[in-house]
Amino acid sequence: MPELPEVETTRRGIEPYIKNKHITAIILRETRMRWPVPESLPELLKGQRLVHIDRRGKYLIFIFNQGALILHLGMSGSLRIVKPNTPPRKHDHVDLVFANEQVLRFHDPRRFGSLHWTEQHPQQHPLLAVIGIEPLSADLSGDFLHEKSRKRKVAVKNFIMNSRILAGVGNIYANEALFLARIHPNKPAGRISLNQYKQLAKAIKQILRAAIRQGGTTLRDFVREDGTRGYFRQKLRVYERPNLPCRRCTTLIKTLLIGQRSSYFCPLCQK
DNA sequence: AGTGCGGCCTGTCCGC
DNA sequence: TGCGGACAGGCCGCAC
After folding, report:
1. Between β-strands A254-258 and A78-82, what pairing exists: parallel, antiparallel or unpaired?
2. Distance (Å) of CA A223 to CA A14, A220, A230, A233
3. CA at A249, C1' at B6: how many angstroms apart?
4. Which nucleotides of strand C are protein-proximal, with an atom < 7 A from a CB?
5. Within 10 A of A226 (CB to CB), how many other CB atoms are there?
6. Integer distance in angstroms from CA A164 to C1' B3?
7. Residue of A231, A257, A225 lying closest to A73 (CA atoms)
8. pLDDT tens for residues A114-165?
9. How confident is the model over A217-242, as pLDDT tens digits?
10. Exposed end of chain A (fewer CB within 10 Å): N or C?
11. Distance between CA atoms of A158 and A28, rounded to whole angstroms?
12. Considering the entire predicted model, what is its pTM?
């Protein structure tokens, strides 16, 4: 579900409540996630202090004084801050209880999310070690995309959604960035010019920053730490707007299945 | 090496 | 009103 802007919104939202606080208890209600949640989590985390929260792509990394908790929200996950004794709802799988009476609650109906504990440097964790560059860092440039895409035949949309190349861009923002850069989503990645990739790199940064400013996009499940929704949905230019007029030229937005994912584009603006 | 697909889950919506 | 099927924001692991 959540892409980089929703994960970053979550990180910013929850951190002030729990930074520098100590864990007093962990409640595991459901450990069957994408990977099993370690049953030893309560013993491992008890008494530890949360130093801060990092993000890498769509992963949140909770840095504790003696290790790190790595969390992925999957397709339908969300994190909220609740008061102790708030009755759990369906699919509230894990609670992290902090000494200041704040509870971080992990909710995930589809259970595609995951929780991992590591005592190594978190970036060495097998799931993090293989992921690509951060889109909002200086690493993302037209030159980078151009170089990495040479001889690649995959659709450019799949290419920018490949988390081993670029971390954090999912279906919504891939569609939106390609619209901004005026590139057809199905165009083979290897046949796009350096100039177009410069536009695309710019568009990706622009769309992600704009979405973060609006608190992310809520389509169905996503909620912020206080249970409110993200407001970027109103700003979407092509995503989930099939047969509606392009905001630039009024041509009707088309859909196409690319790599099993719905894709939306303007057939006139995007070449 | 790059590519394309199956599978993991629940919830919702649509057509019959 | 019920039921089957398609679809949904992700991504690993596998076969080719």
Report:
1. unpaired
2. 12, 9, 7, 13
3. 39
4. 7-12
5. 11
6. 14
7. A225
8. 999 999 999 999 999 999 999 999 999 999 999 999 999 999 999 999 999 9
9. 998 888 999 999 999 999 999 999 99
10. C
11. 36
12. 0.97
